[in-house]
Design a protein that fits this description.
With 434 residues, the chain is α/β, with parallel strands linked by helices. Helices cover 38% and strands 12% of the residues. It has an 8-stranded mixed β-sheet with strand order 3-2-1-4-5-6-7-8, with helices on both faces. It has a 5-stranded parallel β-sheet with strand order 10-9-11-12-13, covered by helices on one side. Helix 8 crosses helix 10, helix 8 runs parallel beside helix 11 and helix 11 crosses helix 12.
């Protein structure tokens, strides 16, 4: 019954977690005329959506309005709606706790909220990133007590590959990894995602798919750690890291360019490597490369502050940052998006405030700093950039290179700019690349 419904596109989807993955995924299904019940325990998100408004940069208000009107998208915080759906997709966060251990409470709480509403002929698919074995431990072991898995109830895993702010690649063009608990589970999962993605890639097992997602992000984390360390070396040796990368890119094989920045940000790269590190310890394996890359990447905000001290000392002959007014330009973890999860801007602000600096920020995507898991900056509001404002700061640190910034005006009116994104012309005496 279920696979026939899916092939005829006569099925309903329940997407749990309407964040940076779940909301775009909902719209993908709606575009294919498939009804989506968007479920989230955050009542503020539900109320915002019901007012035809999006809170994510790459989902437009008009998309929400259009699909609400057509009754293709139904946002709710009522988990009992699970009784009405055929496919359940879980897109909840998988953060780290304070000891850098996997925090799976969002997945576990989701399953607790839906388990009494589950029925035969449903597919449950997890999209959240986690260590190999997560789907089995948090979902399969509980379902198999009540359902005939692979016959009456089906389980899949299909890790998200969203990249907020991307312009050159549409989300449906990204190949989608799919896996299942059994061959029938895989077949059903594949048929669901074939509707909204141009290409699906079948994996032999759920654990392989879980590890592949970690592998992709750890690959990036290690290479970012390497280029950030090279940045430190090149700065000390007075060599241009940008020119080195540009020249290395001319090699037609064996090289892929990664670029330095202010530290790791986003929902994957700062978190996912430690999921594997934690799991590997259970097999008595030390993940040396992962640990070293993490150490290097976490050090970059501190290195930036040292560069600030050095360059302010050159101007004022005083290395202390006490009472110095510093402006952070951009708190998103990447340009042109309203996603600040794990942004290095917050660690930079924290370090500056420990040094008794007076810190403000400006970001066109964040009128105020939202509630954060690991930081408390809730009283800070974005300052409006204008000449008289910029002149008040001893230095500005460009953390996020939003297109909306007026770089010409910023350069003209700033006293000193630490450019972590290498946007400004380094030949200007006000600009320090770091």
């Amino acid at each position: 019954m279920l696979i026939n419904k899916i092939k005829r596109k006569k099925f309903n989807v329940g997407i749990i977690g309407l964040g940076y993955v779940g909301l775009p995924r909902s719209i993908q299904f709606c575009k294919n005329k498939i009804r989506v019940y968007g479920i989230d325990s955050d009542i503020n998100k539900i109320e915002t959506l019901k007012k035809n408004k999006s809170y994510i940069t790459n989902v437009k208000n008009k998309e929400i309005k259009k699909n609400l009107k057509k009754k293709l998208f139904i946002p709710t915080n009522d988990f009992s709606i699970i009784k009405e759906v055929d496919v359940i997709i879980i897109c909840v966060p998988t953060p780290l706790d304070k000891k850098l251990k996997p925090d799976l409470r969002f997945i576990k709480n989701t399953f607790k909220n839906i388990k009494r509403f589950l029925k035969n002929d449903q597919l449950i698919c997890l999209e959240s990133t986690s260590y190999p074995g997560t789907t089995y431990e948090t979902i399969i072991t509980h379902l198999r007590k009540k359902f005939a898995l692979g016959k009456k109830m089906f389980v899949g895993y299909s890790p998200e590959r969203n990249d907020p702010g991307m312009k050159d690649i549409f989300i449906n063009n990204i190949p989608k990894l799919v896996s299942g608990h059994s061959n029938k589970c895989l077949e059903i999962t594949n048929n669901v995602y074939k509707i909204i993605f141009d290409k699906t890639v079948k994996m032999q097992s759920i654990r392989l798919a879980e590890m592949t997602k970690l592998y992709e992000n750890i690959y990036r984390a290690i290479n970012i750690g390497f280029v950030n360390e090279m940045k430190k070396v090149c700065t000390k040796m007075n060599l241009e890291i940008d020119e080195i990368i540009k020249a290395a890119k001319t090699k037609p094989f064996g090289f892929k360019a990664f670029y330095p920045g202010p530290g790791l940000g986003g929902h994957c790269i700062p978190v996912d490597p430690f999921y594997l590190t934690w799991k590997a310890r259970q097999f008595n394996i030390k993940t040396e490369f992962i640990n070293l890359a993490g150490k290097v990447n976490r050090s970059i905000p501190y290195w930036i502050i040292e560069q600030l001290k050095i360059n302010l000392k050159n101007k004022k002959k005083n290395k202390s940052l006490k009472n110095k007014k510093i402006l952070i330009l951009g708190i998103s973890y990447k340009k042109n998006i309203n996603d600040c999860r794990e942004s290095p801007a917050f660690e930079i602000i924290k370090i500056l405030e420990k040094n008794k600096s007076i810190v403000d920020y400006s970001d066109p995507h964040f009128p105020k700093i939202p509630k954060l898991r690991n930081y408390k900056f809730n009283n800070k509001k974005s300052v409006v950039l204008k000449p008289s404002v910029l002149k008040k700061y001893a230095a500005a640190i460009l953390v996020t290179n939003h297109d909306d910034f007026d770089y010409k005006m910023i350069l003209k009116n700033s006293n000193l700019i630490l450019d972590t994104r290498h946007v400004f012309d380094k030949r200007n005496k006000k600009v320090i690349y770091c």
